[in-house]
Amino acid sequence: MSAFPPAPRPGPSRPEISRRNLLALGAGAALAPVIVALNPAGHSVQAAAAASEYEQRFLDLYAKITDSANGYFSPDGIPYHSVETLIVEAPDHGHETTSEAYSYLLWLQAMYGKVSGDWTRFNAAWETMEKFMIPTHADQPTNSFYNAAKPATYAPEHDQPAQYPARLDPAIQAGSDPIAAELKSAYGTDDVYGMHWLQDVDNVYGYGGDTAGPVYINTFQRGPQESVWETVPHPTRDEFTHGGPNGYLDLFTGDASYAKQWKYTNAPDADARAVQAAYWAHVWASAQGKVSDVAATVAKAAKMGDYLRYALFDKYFKTIGDCADPSGCAPGSGKNSSHYLLSWYYAWGGATDTSAGWAWRIGSSHSHGGYQNPLAAFALSAYAPLAPKSASGKADWTKSLTRQIEFYRWLQSAEGAIAGGATNSWQGRYAEPPAGTPTFYGMAYDEKPVYHDPPSNQWFGFQAWSMERVAEYLHETDDPAARTVMDKWVAWALSETKIAADGTYTFPSTLKWSGKPDTWTPSNPRANTGLHVSVVDRTNDVGVAAAYAKTLTYYAAATGHTAAATTAKALLDGMWQHHQDPLGIAVPETRADYNRFDDAVYVPNGWTGTMPNGDTVNSASDFTSIRSFYRDDPDWPKVEAYLAGGAAPQFTYHRFWAQADIALAMGAYAELLEPGSGSQ
């Protein structure tokens, strides 16, 4: 799956957190009378009687997002990736959804609870996520056969899709899984409590049979060069009903024989964001005297955070550091296989036949700067209501918190932007890194971890997403190490942000990297004078603008930085004044990459199978030929004309995460920086 993480030192505590958040709500906010209005779908939207300007903006956009007539949700209340169906990015269809979207729903409903005092919607959002995006016991039925001493069979990752299937190699020994037993002891189950990352909500592909959906699916499986345009979508529960004689398994993994099986992949940044949302829900509900309203849901978030520790481990539980040559890289024992960073994924699977008796689990060796979440690590290590039940969960997150902040410092360029990441398994097969590659606790620097088409660290959005979490953490703790990172990053970001006289704005979109960081020395962090970033092009993307504005808002509230506060306001005002439409806030996008609708999809010669709708899968397949439903999409003529030699098409997309993030940015500004707020 492609989607995207050692001396422990928690940030200093801030005992006035609860008092500050209570003040930020405004005196007597929890007891204020409420007004109840109906949005166009007839749903009630509650708010304090005297909503401020930016709080009202939150409510106005919240009403558009939750209006069933606007198309953000399925009939089951599942947030779609986007209102529009023809969209290809990490999901390859707009009415799929991701764990990312569910996590933003949780955060959106937490902010609604803060503004309205109504926490039923936050709790209901978690219930929806738990019902549809966390596999049930029936979905993962053979975990009881999992052997923590032999967690998985090794298969190398390869550079190109055409090098797959990757052959399993049982001669390469994996390390032992040190957390499985304590998780079972803490929660009384062998099942994993984490979200799978991708779901076909409307059953467009048909892997759900005759049901209307939703159904778990997967796409990315074949190395860093496999873009979304080169994927073969397949079910997470492969019972050989579709595909070839072995379902889709032998496209990805080489084995002597194949068994029907289930497998799920977790996107750790989404589960961490769910924990982040639960933290704020608890803080805000506590300030209202309503902590009992959210306590049960917050306890579930702590459980999710406990299982999220699988993302802190090497893929095959090998020892961390200088881990080259799969046969010579020592299997880990205890916690020496943990890098304590939020890596790109963790995954688990097993036999569908409950009498077959096997299951597996893996972490990931690749950690990206954009996936880290120190606010979630802080919540799971130092905020009692989110304390994991397991024996070592709190200690692991305590160490992870320190390691993540160190990671940011190590990856920070001379200008201030955060570079790619690190890997414990060069090329995904424990190869020897090039001579001179700098290291972080023995892990090799990787400019573009995990995927190369496009390079994983060229998008400014990862900067805004990740640094927003650092800014929240700084706001809650005043950790001087986080302040060091944020001061430098904000100075760079502001220098690259342009606000025009009419209120329109641009900021970086595509970044270009050169050089390398210095090898990390915890006692003497270097300035990375040889690591540089430059801005290739610029954007007014509204989702990234919202994440960036939130970053500046929390940073300004924590530090009193005037330029950060005024720029946050300018971004929020600019999108509100210039980019509103009936469905939300959006800008047109020219999609030159849609010339890839006819990209070839690698399928080995001689391999033949079918998609559920009858589309043939073979060596002549391309992106659209195995997704023939796109030819019936109302927007297809725009793509068809482009493929025939016309101009690149324009689309105005309403992505759920982006609309939620804009609303959240308005709410955060109302709480922290709007004149009259408790922080002023």
Q: Main attributes?
A:
680 residues, alpha+beta, Glycosyltransferase, four-stranded antiparallel beta sheet, 33% helix, globular, disordered N terminus
Task: Summarize the helices and strands and which ones pair or pack.
Blueprint: H1 17-25, E1 34-38, E2 44-48, H2 53-66, E3 96-98, H3 99-116, H4 120-133, E4 166-167, H5 180-187, E5 198-200, E6 215-218, E7 234-235, E8 237-238, H6 249-252, E9 253-254, E10 261-266, H7 268-287, H8 291-307, E11 346-351, E12 359-362, E13 366-368, H9 374-382, H10 393-411, E14 421-423, E15 439-440, E16 443-446, H11 460-477, H12 480-495, E17 498-499, E18 505-515, E19 531-539, H13 542-559, H14 562-578, E20 580-581, E21 584-585, E22 588-590, E23 609-610, E24 616-617, H15 636-643, E25 650-652, H16 656-672
Parallel strand pairs: 4-9
Antiparallel strand pairs: 1-2, 3-5, 5-6, 6-7, 8-10, 10-11, 11-12, 13-14, 14-16, 15-16, 17-18, 18-19, 20-21, 22-25, 23-24
Helix pairs in contact: 1-7, 2-16, 3-4, 3-7, 3-16, 7-8, 7-9, 9-10, 9-11, 10-12, 11-12, 11-13, 13-14, 13-16
Pfam family, one: Glyco_hydro_48
InterPro entries: 6-hairpin_glycosidase_sf (IPR008928), 6hp_glycosidase-like_sf (IPR012341), Endo-1-4-beta-glucanase_dom2 (IPR023309), Endoglucanase_F_dom3 (IPR027390), Glyco_hydro_48F (IPR000556), TAT_signal (IPR006311)
Protein name: Endoglucanase
